Amino acid sequence: MTLDLLIAGARVVDGAGNPWVRADVGVESGRIALVARPGKSHSARRTIDGADRVLCPGFIDIHGHSDLSLFSFPQAQSKLLQGVTTEVGGNCGWSAAPMNPEMEAQARSEYPRPDDVPWGFQSLDRYLAALEQHGIAVNYGCHVGHGTLREAVMGSADRPATPFELARMGRMLEEALEAGAMGLSSGLIYAPGCYAPPSELEHLAALAYRHGRLYASHIRGEGDMLEQAVAEAIAVGRRERGPVQIAHHKASGGPNWGKVSRTLAMVDEARSQGVDVTLDQYPYTASSTDLTAYLPAWARAGGTRALQERLRDPSTRTRIREEVRRPIADAGETADWSLIVLACVRGRRDWEGRTVREISELTATDPVDAVLDLVGAEGGAVQVVHFGMAEDDVRLVMRHPAVMIGSDGSSLAPDPAWGKPHPRSYGTFARVLGCYVREVGVLSLEAAVHKLTGLPAARLALTDRGRVAPGCWADLVLFDPAAIQATATFGDPCRHPAGVDLVVINGVIAAEDGVPTGARPGKALRAI
Ligand SMILES: [Zn+2]
User: Fold this and answer.
1) CATH for 270
2) Distance from C-alpha of 63 to C-alpha of 482, rounded to nearest angstrom
3) In the predicted model, is pLDDT for residue 333 greater than 90?
4) CATH at residue 447
5) Distance from Cα 248 to the centre of ligand 1, integer Å
6) How far is the CA of 65 from the centre of ligand 1 (A)?
7) What percent of the chain has pLDDT over 70?
8) For residue 324, how far is its CA from the centre of ligand 1 (angstroms)?
9) How many CB atoms lie within 10 A of CB 338?
């Protein structure tokens, strides 16, 4: 047998958490065909010497947001060049399908380069087919967003769903699950997801469970109400007897630092009682979201245009201003405007990289007025980066055995239309291996690789990915453990990492020496 590709003599970290072993790994017809002790010679069309490198499964980004950006950046450079070979999108309650025409028009108006996207995703099936037809470098699966379902059925109404509306959401969800959605996601700080009572989420999660899928939640608060919000997520899995993934786990805001020790204890207790709950995390002390998330939930009802109208009405604007001045109970965020940096502002590129407080000083307005003026002018398209976490919390969460790594970022390439995004899109995976394994020693190499590969694969029931084992798809990364490093920073976030030599996806070399080959071997992954 002549192999398509042989990577010879690398330190192989298998993704299951086992200590590395030196081995030859061969690829044939897209799959791993050989894992053998070095010594014997094998014939291959191409042989790569892995002697001073680590070879491991390609990284699985279990929490991504490339739902639309993959059309603009099908090469997925920001992820691919870190070694990501599979991404799961549709997170935080928002998926690109199923959209109705009004939602599509809204998404289009807020998308930096709308002409790149084919649009028209009334069904998840059609959306995945469009991605496949477009051609993508990385494998991509997605959840169905609860907020997307809710908006499609009842707009952005601030009330519980009627039984009829809930049944319609359920039918749309089941259609998407049958088309291969990985699960149901919720985003309970965002409109319209924030208007849903727990019973609505339990009902829909139960449908996902009946299809053997996951419930993934951006919980109702990550600051002042962190513990109640974690309890709500766990309760879904306990009541409906299915798997729960708590997204990007953190404690936001100085007064809340340290609370993750209590929430991790809650997870341990639930797991000891048989509740299947796991978590993910990105390795930074800053988060990123829409500026509108800092506004009260009621003010966001009816969508962005309704919010902008409320801001034009002086008495309603005053009410919104007063509520934003207080920490928002809904979002649990303590809004310290000197810690919130504007990341993407299409109408004011010159403000990107500055804090809200700096903008308020520049414009001689109160910081809250500066925020309301920005939302009034730009709608829902302003992205911010919020320095709200403690490094000790990040490390404590990372060490927990039920925590895996997800970027919470998008597949991007350097492009001024996207402003200064959070560096997690370019750096998450390399940062775990460079900073938290090599420099700080929070995790062993094998434990980290497990959190980047085998653990998310198991969580997503991807039985033939996330491991270096014969028969698995040949999604592989070869990197230099002494050199791998994220170079993306908050000031200069669109920089690709160092130390990643080779990325193989479905047996095809997709990047080599830090450069994409141009191949688009990724598949749309449909859960079955
Ligand atoms: Zn989220």
Assistant:
1) 3.20.20.140
2) 27
3) no
4) 2.30.40.10
5) 7
6) 9
7) 98
8) 20
9) 12
